């Protein structure tokens, strides 16, 4: 049985290295008869691999594309490359692929040999991101949290609030949620005995797991809406503005700047949005890309007037002299 399994893996590796093989050549490489080769090919087909027979002097086999994704065999360099790419995508390097990337990364890291895990970690440390890093989550932290959610293991970590103060937390992780702007962890805080939402970029990179726990029912059926609503009301500086566009049109834009849209009618909606300062809040409102009305607070009105003046001066040109 073990010999057959090893032979199937060898056959699969040959197909994934080269799609088309002659039957005699394959049998020779595997040191089996053509009859045994046919049986092995049938076994791979039963596992979902679309292997087609080809005509010719000796006949052969070709690996095609199927309707489902069968397992892959990767060599060391390929596994490292996949883990690095998934890490970058999970941290927001590829828009729209964050959640799928973290699921795949968790599966890859679970089976990586320690030597390859150390190699991936070393390469990740050498990657430099442009920008301030605000809102960018560490891929290794994401992977560790995702694994703890999957395995129902308590998490211990240091967490920084919006003011920068750090506290120690012990939580039962429930789900990771990506809003299109940031990663959040929804978890049961064992000290506060309540559900809490944590920004992953504020969790210190070193997290540790503890005892197993029995999974609880989550705080809401729609966790994406739950996290988005909480993120919109959490910041220190907040505003509720009326936007001259439908909620359906505005929501895709809010995905990248944060905020919650509530429909008024087909041509307008209310937007609840926040930031750490009123200057940042003014900039975020302009990124919605449509007209809006602000009644207050006074600090936001002042920040918008200041921003408007700066933009107006930037468009002024000096008269040319001959």
Describe the protein in words:
It is a single chain. Helices cover 44% and strands 23% of the residues. The protein is an alpha+beta fold. It has three domains: 62 residues, Winged helix-like DNA-binding domain superfamily/Winged helix DNA-binding domain (Arc Repressor Mutant, subunit A), CATH 1.10.10.10; 126 residues, no CATH class; 80 residues, Alpha-Beta Plaits (2-Layer Sandwich), CATH 3.30.70. Strand 4 and strand 5 form a beta hairpin. It is elongated, with a radius of gyration of 27 Å. The chain starts with a helix and ends in a 7-residue tail after the last helix.
Distance between the termini: 91 Å
Number of domains: 3
Series of secondary-structure elements, N-terminal to C-terminal: HEHHEEHHHHEEEEEHEHEEHEH
In the predicted model, the low-confidence regions spanning at least 5 consecutive residues are: none
């Amino acid at each position: 049985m073990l010999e057959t399994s090893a032979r199937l893996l060898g056959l699969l590796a040959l197909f994934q290295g080269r799609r088309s093989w002659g039957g005699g050549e394959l049998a020779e490489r595997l040191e089996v008869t053509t009859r045994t080769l046919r049986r092995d090919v049938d076994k791979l087909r039963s596992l979902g691999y679309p292997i087609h027979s080809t005509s010719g002097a000796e006949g052969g086999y070709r690996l095609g594309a199927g309707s489902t994704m069968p397992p892959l065999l990767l060599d060391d360099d390929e596994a490292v490359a996949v883990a690095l790419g998934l890490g970058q995508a999970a941290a927001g390097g590829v828009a729209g692929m964050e959640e799928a990337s973290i699921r795949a990364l968790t599966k890859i890291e679970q089976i990586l040999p320690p030597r390859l895990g150390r190699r991936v970690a070393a390469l990740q440390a050498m990657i430099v991101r442009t920008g301030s890093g605000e809102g960018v989550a560490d891929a290794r932290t994401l992977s560790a949290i995702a694994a703890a959610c999957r395995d129902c293991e308590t998490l211990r970590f240091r967490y920084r609030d919006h003011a920068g103060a750090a506290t120690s937390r012990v939580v039962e992780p429930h789900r990771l949620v990506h809003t299109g702007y940031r990663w959040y962890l929804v978890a049961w805080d064992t000290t506060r005995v309540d559900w809490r939402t944590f920004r992953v970029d504020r969790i210190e990179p070193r997290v540790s797991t503890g005892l197993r726990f029995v999974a609880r029912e989550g705080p809401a059926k729609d966790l994406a809406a739950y996290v988005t609503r909480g993120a919109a009301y959490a910041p220190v500086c907040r505003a509720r503005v009326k936007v001259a566009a439908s909620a359906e049109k505005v929501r895709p834009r809010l995905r990248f700047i944060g905020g919650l849209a509530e429909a008024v009618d087909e041509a307008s909606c209310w937007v609840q949005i926040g930031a750490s300062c009123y200057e940042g809040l003014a900039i975020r409102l302009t990124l919605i890309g449509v007209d809006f009305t602000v009644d207050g607070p006074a600090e936001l009105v002042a920040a918008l007037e200041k921003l408007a003046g700066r933009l107006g001066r930037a468009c002024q040109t000096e008269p040319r002299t001959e």
